[in-house]
Every structure is written in C-alpha cells, then in structure tokens.
Give the backbone structure.
Amino acid sequence: MAAEATTTKFQNPDFRPVPQPPDFHPEIAVTAHDGLRYWQFMIAGSIAGSVEHMAMFPVDTVKTHMQAIGSCPIKSVGVRQALKSILKTEGPSGLYRGIGAMGLGAGPAHAVYFSVYEVSKKFLSAGNPNNAVAHAISGVFATVASDAVFTPMDMVKQRLQLGENSTYKGVWDCVKRVLREEGLGAFYASYRTTVLMNAPFTAVHFATYEATKRGLMEISPESASDERLAVHATAGAAAGALAAAVTTPLDVVKTQLQCQGVCGCDRFQSSSIGHVIQTIIKKDGYRGLIRGWMPRMLFHAPAAAICWSTYEACKSFFEEVNDSSNSSTIT
C-alpha cells in the first residue's frame, strides 16, 4: 500500500517522459565529435601538422635525397651515407633547406586534413566510435582535400632540399622560376600519385590509430585518463610506421616526379605512374622502389606520435575552453 501511495503521489499528468529513439546515445555522440567547433579542429590540426613536420624535417631531407635517383650526387640507399654526404656538401644547414616551404604548406594542409576527417567521421560513424570503415573512409576524404593544398609547397620543399645553394635562392624564387619555366602544372605533377599514395596510407593510418588507441585504453581503462598522452603517442607511432612501410614505392614515384630536372635528376616524358615505375625499375631495379623506406618509417613513426599527441592536447584545451564558456553562460 505504501508503495502504491508513493507511486500515485508522483504520477503527475503534467510530467510525462520524453520518448527517445531506440538508437539515442548522447554520451557516444558527444565523445565521437568531442563537442568542438569546426574552426577549433582546424587550429588543432594546423598546430599539430606544423609541429610534426618541423620536428622531423632533417629526416625527411635524408629520405628525399635517397629517393631522388639519377645523376644526383647521392646514389647510396644507406641512411648513414646519405646523411654524411649532405653534411659534407652543405653542412648542417643542408638538412633544413626547404623548411620555409614546409611551414607555409603544413599548417593550412593539416587544418583541412583534420577538420575534414572529424566532420566525415561524425557523419559516417553514425554515433559508433568503433566503426573502423568510417575512420578509414574519413581519412581518405581528408587526404584528397589536404593534398590539394599541400602538394604545390611539397614540390617546392623537395626541390629546395635537393638543390645546391645556386639552384634556387629560396621559396619564392623557386615558385617564380617553376611557374615561368614549367608552368602551373608542374606544381601538381605528382598530385595524382600523392593521392593514390596517401589514400591507402591514411586509411591504414587512421584505422590502425583508432584500433590501437582503443586497444590500449581497454588494457588499462582505470588509468586511461592519466596515460592519455602516452596512448595517443603509442597509437600514432604504430599507425605511422605501418602506413609508411606499405606506401613507400608510391612515395618514391612522387619524389621522382616532383624533383625531375633538379640537380641532374631524370625528366619524364609522362607523369604516368606506370611510366615512372618502369623507368625506376629499368635504371635501379626493384630495389629502387623501396629507396628511403627506413628514413620514411623513422620519419612517420615519431612524426605521427608527435602529431596525434599535439592534436589531442589541442582538442583537450578547446574542450576545457568550451566547458568553461558553457558553464559561465548557464550561470
């Protein structure tokens, strides 16, 4: 009777439960998109990309020299020999040639990259944070968009990395000379190859990152918050190394296309991927397609760890800012 009385007492017809759809999971929806605004994803991505590429730039320079076969000065595939040759020819500053072009391209490109990824992931995952297919497809969308922004400056960067001081005076001199001598198409000569390389690279990268991150957090869920930075760094390193190893042959093709005619490197009659691959195999054998694989992995493993850690740290900062703003608005 007491139970019935209590039930009757609180059965007010003015207070009716609001019906929810069967797939309504507010906690998952918020977590999947982190409650950030579009511009906040762009800023976080821009900072992460710039920090990543600036920190690892010397390794990228060694990789570029190793991949640019032809009559260029460096013919050895060894990391140590390539590094010694650069230092002997140009000194330590040679490892940083082209870093200005990287700075101009990495920030905007990564802003596009991460914002497109986050928006696509939110739309495609439909509230399921464990949807690996959605992560992979979102990564492909992100790379197609960001490569359109980054490819021109990446071409300038690689030419500056290879060229001696007399080849180009700097970023703008390279841009003007390429535009005058080769036309606008030279800036996008490798775009198709870049997309074909980065699409599987990004698909493997994001799928591996999300899966590794989820696995690491499941191993020790009670300390997941305390070890959040270590989780992102470890997952990012694993994703970067695997994706880099898988896509090295296409990266060699991209470097060849972007550096043709510079420092005595071959010029190609066609920008066809098949034509470039045949030329590389004819001149250097099948090993030519994996030139630079070691510095590429040495670049992408720590670079991805730096990038994801920085990106997630920026996202956490914006989440705190948004929470503070929402709290003050409610108050």
Q: What stands out?
A: Confidence is low (pLDDT under 50) at residues 1-10, 23-32, 71-76. The chain has 13 helices and no strands. The first helix runs from residue 2 to 9. The CA atoms of residues 157 and 255 lie 11 Å apart.
